[in-house]
Amino acid sequence: MKALILIDTQAGTEDPATIEPYNQLHAAWLEHGAVAVQDIIAGIILGPGEWSEWFAKWGAMQPDQFSKAFNCLMHRDDVTSRLGEIACPALIVHGTADVAIGMDRAEVLRDSLAGPTTFVAIDGGPHAANITHAEPVNAAILQVLGSLA
């Protein structure tokens, strides 16, 4: 592996305080469809704005597709204790307005990886800063990729 690019992520498991509310969102989606929770989910992932394109994508998802993605995120392994084993260069991009994963969790990545790490905070970026703030995210990615050539 030449490098890692980590966008709005963390090494740990889900914050225990969010597990039950997220489970309720999952149950509501399965029972009533994406439309029942799309505004809440968009607020968590994308922040304020008009997200009809994403609402259409979510509305087209089969329940099992959504459940697989949801369960993958909710039942992930905590790899925090192994971050020191990762010695390749890393780029960490994290939105300052990410309500799904706090900046403190991104800072754990930054402070724990063994290799050279570039940390870019995207001002006002939500959880999906790569979608909402594509220009600065892509610039950071291109800079790191260029340094590897």
Automatic annotation (TrEMBL):
Native source organism of the sequence: freshwater metagenome
Gene3D superfamilies named in the record: alpha/beta hydrolase
InterPro entries: AB_hydrolase_fold
Record-given protein name: Unannotated protein
